[in-house]
Structures are given as C-alpha cells and as structure tokens.
Amino acid sequence: MMVTMHSINVVLLFIDTWLNRM
User: Fold this and answer.
1) Assign residue 15 a region: left if phi > 0, alpha if psi is -120 to 50, beta otherwise?
2) Please, which residues have CB within 8 angstroms of residue 6's CB and are 6 or more apart in sequence?
3) Where are the beta strands (DSSP E) in the chain?
4) pLDDT digits over 1-22, tens only?
5) CA 10, CA 3: separation in Å to the nearest integer?
6) CA–CA distance, 6 with 3 (Å, rounded to integer)
7) What is the pLDDT at residue 19?
8) What is the pLDDT, as a whole number, of residue 22?
9) Taking the alpha carbons of 3, 9, 12, 13 in that order, is the dihedral positive or negative?
10) Number of CB atoms found within 10 A of residue 22's CB
C-alpha cells in the first residue's frame, strides 16, 4: 500500500512539473 501511494505521488508530481513546463 505504501509503495502504491508513493508511486502515485511521484506520478502526480511528474505530471504537475510537466504541465508547468507547457
């Protein structure tokens, strides 16, 4: 569960960074 939550947080952070670059 902890690993899944961590992965989701990493993906959300990556998407947020990518959107900021747009």
Assistant:
1) alpha
2) none
3) none
4) 678 889 999 999 999 999 999 8
5) 11
6) 5
7) 96
8) 84
9) negative
10) 4
Q: Give the pLDDT confidence score for residue 4 in this predicted structure.
A: 87
Alpha carbons 11 and 19: distance in angstroms, whole number: 12
| Residue 1: both structure tokens together | 């569960």
Q: How far is CA 20 from CA 11, 13, 14, in A?
A: 14, 11, 10
Q: What per-residue confidence (pLDDT) applies to 11?
A: 96
Structure tokens at 2: 């902890």
**Distance in angstroms (rounded) separating the CA atoms of residues 1 and 8:** 11
